[in-house]
């Protein structure tokens, strides 16, 4: 379960220099270096909150899991934890690798869940809201949890999607390292692309564990932000209707 190649801290270029005399670089380098080479060659963005599934080939995620576990094991050793004698942390590296790649950051590595949109044959044009949708994410700065709720408001356009699909796409978008402000924008872009609404509003209220667990240690502090698109942006009465519907949904939960 360990990598053949020694850890390299400087990425692809470093590896090339390390093996100048054979043509097998692509086969002997770390899997992350081989995938990263595709990003670089294609000029592709691979920021923490980007989805990179298109550039990962079948079987590579399993290889990546082995490599990440190797790096986490080194991290634990650098933290001076005796992983060879401590039964609690013996397999922590493998667990953390699986957790990052398959759970908390799955929205980077997995393709968007299949979401079918349908023509809006009844020409529905009344505003509706969906929520609260639970969001689980991690802050890009500290990799600690962001937990909260999201409400999505739609004034339908030419296409519609099922209500449960909003929760699926939100989970996919939020399951990446994020800052909340950008997460909301990315979710709005995806929903606009999926169902082309006349109006779209999203509100996110979340607790940031980098403020609760560390730093200023403010346990009650939350962050609320919103984005409005289309007619919600230009028509203040529609925007107010969206916010009022969300208030009503919250009030229903409180009773
Ligand atoms: Zn943070």
From TrEMBL:
<feature type="domain" description="GTP cyclohydrolase I">
    <location>
        <begin position="70"/>
        <end position="246"/>
    </location>
</feature>
<dbReference type="InterPro" id="IPR043133">
    <property type="entry name" value="GTP-CH-I_C/QueF"/>
</dbReference>
<dbReference type="GO" id="GO:0003934">
    <property type="term" value="F:GTP cyclohydrolase I activity"/>
</dbReference>
<dbReference type="InterPro" id="IPR020602">
    <property type="entry name" value="GTP_CycHdrlase_I_dom"/>
</dbReference>
<dbReference type="GO" id="GO:0005737">
    <property type="term" value="C:cytoplasm"/>
</dbReference>
<dbReference type="GO" id="GO:0006730">
    <property type="term" value="P:one-carbon metabolic process"/>
</dbReference>
<dbReference type="InterPro" id="IPR043134">
    <property type="entry name" value="GTP-CH-I_N"/>
</dbReference>
<protein>
    <recommendedName>
        <fullName>GTP cyclohydrolase I</fullName>
        <ecNumber>3.5.4.16</ecNumber>
    </recommendedName>
</protein>
<dbReference type="GO" id="GO:0005525">
    <property type="term" value="F:GTP binding"/>
</dbReference>
<dbReference type="GO" id="GO:0006729">
    <property type="term" value="P:tetrahydrobiopterin biosynthetic process"/>
</dbReference>
<feature type="compositionally biased region" description="Polar residues">
    <location>
        <begin position="16"/>
        <end position="25"/>
    </location>
</feature>
<dbReference type="GO" id="GO:0046654">
    <property type="term" value="P:tetrahydrofolate biosynthetic process"/>
</dbReference>
<dbReference type="Pfam" id="PF01227">
    <property type="entry name" value="GTP_cyclohydroI"/>
</dbReference>
<dbReference type="GO" id="GO:0008270">
    <property type="term" value="F:zinc ion binding"/>
</dbReference>
<keyword id="KW-0554">One-carbon metabolism</keyword>
<comment type="pathway">
    <text>Cofactor biosynthesis; 7,8-dihydroneopterin triphosphate biosynthesis; 7,8-dihydroneopterin triphosphate from GTP: step 1/1.</text>
</comment>
<feature type="region of interest" description="Disordered">
    <location>
        <begin position="1"/>
        <end position="25"/>
    </location>
</feature>
<dbReference type="InterPro" id="IPR001474">
    <property type="entry name" value="GTP_CycHdrlase_I"/>
</dbReference>
<keyword id="KW-0378">Hydrolase</keyword>
């Amino acid at each position: 379960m360990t990598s053949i190649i020694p850890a390299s801290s400087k990425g692809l270029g470093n590896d090339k220099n390390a093996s100048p005399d054979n043509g097998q670089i692509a086969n002997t380098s770390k899997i992350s270096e081989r995938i990263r080479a595709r990003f670089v060659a294609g000029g592709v963005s691979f920021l923490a909150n980007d989805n990179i599934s298109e550039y990962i080939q079948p079987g590579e995620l399993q290889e990546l899991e082995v490599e990440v576990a190797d790096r986490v094991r080194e991290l634990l050793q650098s933290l001076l934890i005796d992983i060879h004698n401590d039964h609690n942390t013996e397999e922590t590296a493998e667990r953390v690798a699986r957790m990052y790649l398959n759970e908390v950051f799955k929205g980077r590595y997995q393709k968007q869940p299949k979401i079918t949109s349908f023509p809006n044959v009844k020409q529905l044009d009344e505003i509706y809201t969906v929520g609260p949708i639970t969001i689980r994410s991690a802050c890009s700065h500290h990799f600690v949890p962001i937990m909260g709720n999201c409400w999505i408001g739609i004034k339908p356009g030419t296409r519609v999607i099922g209500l449960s699909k909003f929760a699926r796409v939100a989970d996919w978008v939020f399951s990446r390292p994020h800052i909340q402000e950008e997460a909301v924008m990315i979710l709005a872009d995806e929903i606009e692309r999926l169902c082309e609404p006349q109006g779209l509003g999203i509100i996110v209220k979340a607790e940031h564990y980098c403020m609760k667990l560390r730093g200023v240690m403010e346990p009650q502090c939350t962050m609320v932000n919103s984005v409005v698109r289309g007619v919600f942006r230009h028509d203040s009465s529609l925007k107010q209707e969206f916010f009022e519907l969300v208030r009503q949904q919250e009030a229903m939960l409180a009773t």
